[in-house]
Design a protein that fits this description.
heterodimer, A: alpha+beta, six-stranded antiparallel beta sheet, five-stranded mixed beta sheet, 11 helices, B: five-stranded parallel beta sheet, 8 helices, 12 strands, elongated
Chain lengths: ~500, ~240
């Protein structure tokens, strides 16, 4: 497509054309109205003057007869810029006046008419136009009074010329404006197209140029950039997953294979084989668990489970998880406590529960207070607090906060961002069983609910908080009663 | 695991297209005393399920010719209420709900342990032809009244927490059957995820300390590699 072709195909240019047409139409009708009204006004003026004069002359004729009328007409016809006058006999012969020739049959019809005429006193042959009134006098004589229409024609031609010029200006300026706007838009669109093409070719880090005016194109570019951001994050996530899968699934697979190989090579009794097979099943169960967790994270991150969302109270989730894990915590020499207030949110109850379960499992696994280096503090309550895990559900403004706080060693600030990534396990936890996916899943669940997983210092210990946007007040009122439960 | 008396043989239909897993399932179910038929695609499965008198259907989610969910849906539309268990390799969260909505009675993601599948099939079949729900469950000298929420062993009244009561209720409802940890988590707690810890075992051991501690005959048994079972040991 040529540059010009591209230009006239832009929306901006086409819109300009439409506006141009509309504006021209408007100007034309305005001028037309003006011309028509002027013409009407002039005609009206002529009619009034002629009527008055006719009445005057008719009166004169009645009082002074033909002689008086002729005298008055001769007199008036000589004045500069005089009206047209003509008096004829009943047979049509001119008696007095300043008209040399008239259109055919004008004198035969009474009333108003427009006609061409020649004056007696002028040399040129060009005919003029006039508006005339003809009437029969009482004796059968006829009287014509009229006025030249030159003035009317001149005003009309001025208006016509004005119309021509204004049209020309409108069209020229409009086209120029259209081209200007279209070229501006086109330049920006071309810049965007260029960037998107680069992105399509694989450079996901490219971003569209955003101007400072905040107009619709800037907003579009902003949105597209946000979309690209998301796509890039997803792609990076995907790559990370495949890298991690390669690394962290191959290790147990290798163990699995080694175990089977070793059993084949060295086992001699049924018991040996049995032990090897049991180990194999255990190892593969672990693999399946890891795989399920990975799939779940991937699904949560891609937003695929958004369909199964309903309204529920985060406090119920907190209480449920507390109820489930309280005995386990106790067996591990810790206490699990729960503090809740109503905190309604819209989401996937199952996934939020699972995220909370992961956080509590982490707290139970890693949240044990470090054995005191110094002799135990005399304050016994401080000790009790150290072995405590606190589950909280509350609402803070527009956010529902579901948190799990332990008083273990915590996570150094530098590592906090890092541990959310898949398969990351800090050195201290390597000896504990686990896949390193718990926090990743919790984080993915938070993201799915347009929230985030926050890790903070509980001094001492770790506080992991799922911060999820709360259900708005309106939705709360409507949904306060039935909290749907999952079909079993 | 010989819980099935020969005279009341269970009839099972397995609809699974993967030859190897299908053969494995048929063999494994026959070993524990089931009559197991096999269909290898959706159409064949539908016509077999429609004509044969089965106690339970085990249906793979993705089948040639006709999707597993569609098989169940068609059967349900025809008024066939045979319990159906869906096996699926798809994800758990949304897929399970979809499967249950289509008319399935239980859902098991692949890969699964055969013990888990067997336990679930037995619970389903018992539900299908079993007796009406009783008000009072009895196992040995253990008695659970579902209306008054009273639990007693012999002459001793036992005090259970609400959740312990529900746990015991579920176990006793399926007395004599293996109940897996996942089944307990799903049916007693209504959670469908896989905890990384032995959280269910802890609940069981608490319950056990209340109902079995101090009594000569234990009722709550751990079935190795599968789950738990409540059973009168004398029988």
């Amino acid at each position: 497509m040529t540059a010009f072709g591209k230009l006239i195909r832009t929306t901006a240019f086409r819109l300009t054309l439409v506006y141009l047409f509309l504006f021209a139409l408007f100007a034309a009708s305005l001028l037309g109205y003006f011309a028509w009204n002027t013409r009407r006004l002039i005609t009206e003026q002529i009619t009034t003057t002629v009527n008055a004069e006719f009445a005057e002359l008719n009166d004169l004729y009645t009082r002074r007869g033909l002689r008086g009328l002729v005298g008055a007409i001769e007199n008036r016809a000589l004045r500069p810029g005089a009206n047209l006058y003509l008096v004829t006999t009943p047979t049509g012969q001119a008696v007095a006046g300043n008209v040399a020739a008239l259109g055919n049959g004008i004198m035969a019809t009474t009333g108003w008419s427009e006609t061409v005429y020649h004056r007696l006193d002028e040399q040129q042959k060009a005919p003029h136009r006039a508006l005339v009134r003809v009437d029969e006098l009482s004796s059968g004589f006829r009287l014509l009074i009229g006025r030249d229409l030159e003035e009317r024609r001149r005003i009309f031609s001025i208006v016509a010329k004005a119309a021509q010029w204004s049209m020309l200006i409108v069209v020229v300026l409009g086209l120029a404006g259209g081209v200007f706007v279209a070229r501006r838009v086109l330049r920006r669109i071309d810049a965007m197209t260029g960037t998107t093409r680069r992105i399509m070719e694989g450079d996901l880090s490219g971003r569209l140029p955003v101007g400072r005016s905040g107009d619709e194109l800037d907003r579009l570019a902003d949105n597209l950039n946000a979309m690209l951001e998301r796509i890039e994050a997803l792609m990076t996530g995907l790559k990370e997953v495949s890298d991690n899968i390669a690394h962290d699934l191959k290790t147990p697979l290798t163990r699995l294979r080694n175990r089977a190989e070793e059993a084949l090579a060295t086992s001699s009794s049924e018991a040996d084989y049995r032990a090897a097979l049991e180990g194999t099943i255990e190892e593969s169960d672990g693999l399946i668990r890891t795989f399920n967790a990975l799939l779940m994270i991937a699904r949560a991150e891609s937003g695929q489970v958004r369909g199964n969302m309903d309204n529920f109270d985060a406090a119920e989730v907190a209480n449920g998880i507390h109820e489930l894990y309280e005995p386990l915590a106790e067996d591990n020499g810790m206490t699990l406590r729960v503090v809740t207030q109503p905190a309604p949110l819209h989401g996937n109850r199952e996934l939020v529960s699972q995220a909370m379960a992961n956080l509590v499992e982490n707290a139970i696994k890693y949240g044990k207070p470090a054995p005191p280096i110094q002799p135990p503090a005399p304050d016994a309550t401080a000790d009790a607090k150290l072995g405590e895990i606190l589950i909280e559900a509350r609402r803070e403004g527009d956010t529902v906060l579901l948190s799990v706080t332990d008083h273990g060693p915590g996570i150094p600030e530098a590592d906090r961002k890092h541990v959310i990534e898949r398969f990351v396990r800090l050195e201290a936890s390597r000896t504990q069983p686990g896949s390193g996916l718990g926090l990743s899943l919790a984080s993915a669940v938070a993201t799915l609910h347009r929230g985030e997983l926050r890790l903070s210092d509980a001094e001492p210990g770790l506080r992991a908080t799922l911060a999820i946007p709360a259900l708005s007040g309106e939705g709360l009122a409507v949904q306060a009663l039935p909290l749907e439960s999952h079909p079993v | 695991m010989t819980l099935i008396e020969p005279e009341s043989q269970m009839r099972l239909l397995i609809i699974e297209d993967d030859r190897e897993s299908a053969d494995y399932l048929v063999k494994a179910f026959r070993e524990v005393g089931y009559v197991a038929d096999l269909a290898s695609d959706g159409e064949e499965g539908l016509s077999l399920a429609d004509t044969g008198d089965y106690d339970v259907l085990v249906i793979d989610r993705m089948l040639p010719k006709r999707d597993g969910l569609s098989v169940i849906g068609t059967l349900r539309d025809k008024g066939n209420r045979t319990p159906a268990l869906i096996l699926s390799a798809l994800g758990q969260v949304d897929d399970r709900i979809k499967g249950l909505r289509a008319g399935g009675d239980d859902y098991l993601p692949k890969p699964y342990a055969f013990a888990e599948l067997l336990a679930r099939v037995e619970v389903l079949s018992r539900r299908h032809g079993g007796p009406a729900e009783e008000t009072v469950y009895r196992v040995g000298d253990l008695e659970l009244d579902r209306l008054s929420h009273r639990v007693a062993r012999g002459k001793d009244e036992l005090t259970l927490q609400p959740r312990e009561f529900r746990l015991l209720e579920y176990l006793m409802k399926h007395a004599g059957q293996v109940v897996t940890r996942t089944m307990l988590l799903e049916n007693v707690w209504d959670y469908h995820f896989d905890p990384q810890t032995n959280v269910i075992d802890v609940h069981i051991s608490r319950l056990r300390s209340k109902i079995d501690k101090g009594f000569e005959q234990p009722l709550l048994h751990t079935i190795r590699g599968a789950g738990y079972m409540i059973r009168d040991g004398i029988r």
